[in-house]
UniProtKB/TrEMBL annotation:
SUPFAM superfamilies: Copper amine oxidase, domain N. It comes from Paenibacillus paeoniae. Keywords: Signal. The keyword DNA repair does not apply. Residues 1-25 form the signal peptide. InterPro entries: Cu_amine_oxidase-like_N, Mao_N_sf. This is Copper amine oxidase.
Amino acid sequence: MNFKKVAIWLMLLSLCGGTIIFANAAAQKVRVLINGTELDSGGIIVDGTTYLPLRQVAGSMQAIVEWDNASKRATVYKPNVHMFMYQGNSPFGVVNKGFSGKIKVFSQIDNLQTDIKSVKVTITDPSGKEKLIQSENVTSSNNFWFVTEEFDYKFDAVGQYAVRFYMKVTDADDWTVVSEKEIPSIVPKNNK
């Protein structure tokens, strides 16, 4: 009696193990790089078709993903968002270490093909410390401008500062980065 049970279990385990080995042999892993950065979990190729993790790909491309569970449909939206940094009426893109004062972010948004609930703009210093510049509920349209209020900021360190523009889709609770602008902070030439 015990021999029959052991034999049945061994046969079942052999079938399961063989199926897992076959499945691994049929699917090939794929490394995915977007703008030189590799995705954490790459893709797979099954029967000549490549499958990629949609949320990771969309996040790397700064796109919004909406999921409709009822129809099992994912829709990807990539709005155009262009940001400019200003101090007074003067735009800037590179600053000297120690640069400070009242600045604002001007954002031009177009090709927005979905409704959004709100936007926010942040700045992150080279050490990774993020500061909220402004967050606001918006009535979206395909094309609009968003200008932050002036805020005081000091570029204390040398390195890349990231200004990010986020959107929140109407039915979602999470923010999606749809644009990022890097502001290099450098050592002034006379201090080298």
